Structures are given as C-alpha cells and as structure tokens.
Amino acid sequence: MGKRNREKRAAKKKVRASRGPTPPRYDFDEPWAPPPVVSPEMVAEGLVQAAHAHEVDSEFVDGTVADLAGREPVAPVRTVAIGAGIALAATIDLAWKRGWTPVDVREHLRRAGDAAVGSLVIDVVAADTAKYSAATVDERWAAQVRELGAEVWWEPGVPQLLQWADRRGVGLDSALRTAVTLLAGLMKLPELPHIVPVPGSASARSSASASGVDQKVLARVRALLAKAESTQFPEEAEALSAKAQELMNRHAFERAVLDADEHRKQTAVSTRLWLDAPYVDGKAHLVDAIARTNRCRSVYYSRMGFVALVGESMDVEITELLTTSLLVQATRAMVAEGTQVTRGGTSRTRSFRQSFLVSYATRIGERLEEAGVRAHDPVEDERLLPVLAERSRLVEETFETMFSNLTHKSAAVTNGAGWHAGRAAADRADITVGRQAVDA
Which are the contacts of 6, defined by CB distance < 8 A and separation ≥ 6? Predict the structure, then answer.
C-alpha cells in the first residue's frame, strides 16, 4: 500500500472517531412509539415509595424529588402536584381506617417539631373533610376539624400543593419533601380502637352530639378553671377549682336524674388526652385518678404519650376539664419547689418532680373520691343509683370491647421529699363537692 493510501485511511479513521459510534440502523417497518407519559397516579406511587425509604435511603428520596421537580422533570408541574394530592388523600384515609382522628394526627406529628408538616396536614384534613356531605360527618369529628382550623382556603382549579407552596414561599422541591415527610409519618401510625365514625359513614343518629352538657354551665366552669390557673394565690385557686368541680358534678347528677325520669338510653364514648413531656408518666397517673373518681376508665399509651378515656359523655368532659386545670396547678406547684440537689451537689430534680406528680395524683384521687360520696342528695338515690349502675355496666362493656391484653403499670417513687411535697400540694388543691348553691 502506497504512502498516499495510508494517509487517506488514517484521515478517515480520525473523522469516524470524532463522529462517535456508528448510529444504529432503524427498521422503518416497525411503528414508532413515543416515550411513556407519566400520570398523576405514577407520581403518587413514586412519592409513596420515597416515603417508605424516608428514614433509610435519603439518596432515593433526593432522586425522586429531583425527577419530579429538578431541571428536567419527568412530568409537568401540575401533574406532579395532582399526584402528591392523590398520595396524601389515600394515606390520610388509611390513618382514619386505623382508628386515628384529626386531633390525634396533629398531636402526634406536632411532637416531631416540623411546622411545615403540621401546616400541610391541616390542609390535607380540610380537603378530606370537604369530600363528604356534612350530614355524613359525625359532630365529634367535625368539632375536631374546627379545633384544628382546617378549612379549604385554596382556589379550585389549581392543585392544592402548588398554592400551599406559594403561600409558604417555597419551591415545588421543598413542598414535595414536606409531602414525603408527612406521608412517612402517616404510614407509620399503628392501629388504634375506633372512637368516632370516619367521615362519610356517620348517620343522622350518630352525628348528633352525644354530650348533654349545658353550654352555659360549661362556659362558667371553663371561666372558673381559667381563673384558678392564672391566679398566684393557692387559696384562691383552691376555691375556684372546688367551685368548678362542684358545679360540674352537680350538673352531671342532675342530668342523670333527668335520664332516669325520661328513661333515656345510656351511652359511652371515648376520647384521647395527649400529654406533653416531661414527666408524662406522672401526668398520666393524675388523669387516671381524675377519671376513676368521675366514673371513667383510662388506658395509658406510654409510647405515644396519650391517655384514652371511656365513659359517659358528660363524665368524660368533666375529666378532660379537671385534668387540664389540675395539670396546670400541679405543674406550677411543682416548679415552685425549685431544683433539688443532694448534699454532694448531685441533681435530683427529675426524680423529685416525678415523685411529686405521682403523689399529687394519688392524693387528688383520694380527695375526689371522698367528695364524690357527698356529691348528691341521698333523697335522689332511688332514681339516681340505677342510672349510675347502668352507666357503669355500659362503660365496662365498652372498655372491654375496645381494649384487651392490657398491662398494669405502676409508677416508681424514688424521692421521698417529692412524694411529701406532692401530697401537700394536692391538699392545697382540695376539691370539695357539695350540694349547696354555686354562684359563678
């Protein structure tokens, strides 16, 4: 081969190398197929998968968000936002089927401390509730939705997540990360007993308010307890708390007598009281003491941080009101004791306060039990006692149906000074129930 031919071949090889690999030959007899279109349902499935990997594979979550909201997203923004809405709606519905309620979900997620997640879940609750006719939403459920302030504020026609992101001043990628975090939190919720019919399943009968508490009486009681919580004078707090307890118990027994006269069927309801750290065990003992003396049963979910109550609707409401007030008073009295240290300088504040609350709860229970004996006129016993007996039977049956395999747990008291201080504080918060007139 001559020199000239070798030069030509070398030049051609260089050109081919600069062009890259030889493109494939297409068979134009086969029909051309466009790339698959990503649907909202596919986006929803991708977000659910990312939620499953939320705590174990951050790279997968990052990749999912990049695919949906990066420089070259696999789907239009509207499609992505609609898909996120589908995933959130399906997952919140699963939470309802597992026995959770709007307030339960809010309280559980609030403990994670993510404000964005807390904001988004309220909108998800609002969107879910709006799907149903008001007649099919139980009043207790609707009351929780109102408590959360869950309302549809966004305009129709534009996916809610986009308007939520705009309202908070964040991009789609940040909104999707919040959605994934919320999905992950909702998917981990355990099964709980159902305490309120889920939206869409309530009838006119079940939607009616189960509570027979006179709202005027309730307003007066709340005002008394608010004063008891705000005053700096123990004697005044005692008098106000006693007046509130007296007013509620008198109203409860009068309602029971009315039920007897009108032969009303007795009912039992359940609710959950969420307790804030620290010293949740001690606070749970106080709830139990108040519940027992107001004819309710309680179960403490130590891992979750709440106490479930079962009782007649008014008795449950009394328990909730007294618990809220007495926790405020107990905490104030406990903190007033100051920090506690040994002679060697070792802190014993935690054991002191835990023992304080257990002792406080025990003494409050004794005082309320004593007061309960005097809470009604013996003349009414003939009409009152059968009603109370029927309520007690129904509460026990409902409790046994809802809860099984319970473990009885006692709180450890390791600090004698805390025990005595708590008992003294409970004596100062003495709650006496009588039949004399109550003015508020």
Answer: none
Contact predicate 341/347, CB 8 Å = yes
- Angle at which helices 172-187 and 58-69 pack, to 10 degrees? 140
32-41, 123-132, 147-156, 293-302: range with lowest mean pLDDT: 32-41
Query: If you write DSSP's letter for every residue of 27-80 in order, what string do you get?
Result: -TTSPP-PPPPPPHHHHHHHHHHHHHTTTT-HHHHHHHHHHHHSSS-SS-HHHH
Query: Burial code of 387-399, b = ≥16 C-beta within 10 A, e = fewer?
Result: bbebbbebbeebb
Q: What is the pLDDT of residue 438?
A: 34
CB atoms within 10 A of CB 196: 24
Please report which confidence band the pLDDT of residue 215 belongs to, taking 50, 70 and 90 as the band edges. Answer: low
> Is a pLDDT exceeding 90 seen at residue 67?
yes
Alpha-carbon radius of gyration of the chain: 31
Window from 27-31, 215-219, 233-237, 274-278 with minimum mean pLDDT? 27-31
Confidence of residue 440 (pLDDT cuts 50, 70, 90): very low
DSSP string, 231-255: -S-HHHHHHHHHHHHHHHHHHHHHH
Q: Say what the pTM is.
A: 0.76
CA 64 to CA 43: how far, in whole Å? Answer: 9
Residue 158 main-chain phi, psi, to 5 deg: -120, 130
More confident residue, 209 or 358: 358
Positive/negative CA dihedral, 317, 321, 324, 326: negative
103, 144 Cβ separation under 8 angstroms: yes
- Determine the Cα–Cα distance for residues 308 and 269; give it in Å rounded to an integer: 11
pLDDT at residue 15 is higher than 50: no
DSSP label at residue 341: B
Neighbours of 145 (CB within 10 A): 21
Cis before 40? omega within 30? no
Distance from chain centroid for Cα 361:
24
Whether the Cβ atoms of residue 277 and residue 305 lie closer than 8 Å to each other: yes
Classify residue 296 by burial, with Cβ atoms within 10 Å: 0-12, 13-18, 19+: buried
Q: Cα–Cα distance between 342 and 100 in angstroms, integer?
A: 45
